[in-house]
Amino acid sequence: MARITASVYTSHVPAIGAALDLGKSDEPYWQPVFKGYEFSKQWMKDNQPDVIFLVYNDHATAFSLDMIPTFAIGTAAEFAIADEGWGPRPVPKVIGHPALASHIAQSVIQQDFDLTIVNKMDVDHGLTVPLSLMCGVKDPVKDAWPCPVIPFAVNVVQYPVPSGQRCFNLGKAIAKAVESFDEDLNVHIWGTGGMSHQLQGPRAGLINKEFDNAFLDQLIANPADAAAIPHIDYVREAGSEGIELVMWLIARGAMKDIANHTVSARARHRFYHVPASNTAVGHLILENT
Which residue among 45, 72, 128, 185 has the highest number of C-beta atoms inside a 10 angstrom radius? Predict the structure, then answer.
């Protein structure tokens, strides 16, 4: 059967992608950010999965305000890189895994979660920046990402957005779906977005280190408490865009220790840095023991 062996959590700041694409990663401002992912790139080579299930949010590229699915799973064979207004990022196209994606959709919907099935969509920086951070810079013509990726888009842009508890429970359903797939696959699940930041209004530029690090503590050792955080706390403490952290709870809910009602996932790497652009960058790797 397929199995989830690890989860990865990371911010997906668009300026990070621009820094990589423009060759600025060695500049003093960006060096501390990319240093935090040096371990991760080697870990990725040493623990390469067969498939990545990548949870992210679309930034009005595949979906506009005319149609906003709460949860959308990409079931296509490949996904083009989105043009977000200044041309697509110069990275390889994303190869999907239609068989596993379709199986997960079937299983999760039968577990009473409503998913939107997407057979064609472009993917933006929310998905490609995490891949670049974990896999390194890739040539769009000569290279490819190390494995197929299943995009899973969550609405954290337009209210109402799903609760942390709903996302946590969805992660459990995804894990059950993966484990019922009749093929021996090593799957990683990634939760992306966040951490604390606000892009508009009188609190623009807000960063809350204390909240961010407390969230990382809870995510590792007491994820049930993290899942119970109400929306208003994210907005009040982490800024209007801090709500993106609920996507991390999908990945955490899919870990084996949750299914076994224990907290035994092993933290292999933890990193936190401010600022990157006008946001806090958080990163965590957990392995199933």
Answer: 128
Q: What is the CA radius of gyration of the chain?
A: 17
Q: Which residue has the tokens 């059950």?
A: 176
The single-letter code of the amino acid at 233 is: D
- Which residues on neighbouring strands pair with residue 53, listed in sequence order? 150, 189
In the set 12, 97, 103, 197, the catalytic residue is 197
197 is catalytic: yes
Quick one: which of 270, 210, 211 has its CA closest to 245? Answer: 211
The fold for domain 3-288 equals Protocatechuate 4,5-dioxygenase; Chain B (3.40.830)
Q: What is the pLDDT of residues 177-193, one digit of tens each?
A: 999 999 999 999 999 99
For 206-245, give one letter per residue: b (16+ CB within 10 A) or e.
bbbeebbeebbebbbeebeebbebebeebbebbbbbbbbb
Q: Which residues contact 94 (CB under 8 A, 6 or more apart)?
A: 78, 79, 81, 123, 127, 128, 131, 145, 149, 151
Q: Please pick, among 12, 125, 188, 283, the residue that the annotation labels catalytic.
A: 125
The two three-digit tokens of residue 114, written as one number:
């409503």
Tens-digit pLDDT profile for residues 46-83: 999 999 999 999 999 999 889 999 999 999 999 999 99
Q: Are 172 and 258 in contact (CB under 8 A)?
A: yes
Q: What is the C-alpha to C-alpha distance for residues 55 and 111, in angstroms, rounded to an integer?
A: 19
Where do the structural domains in the chain lie, given as residue ranges? 3-288
Q: Residue 195 in contact with residue 105, Cβ under 8 Å?
A: no
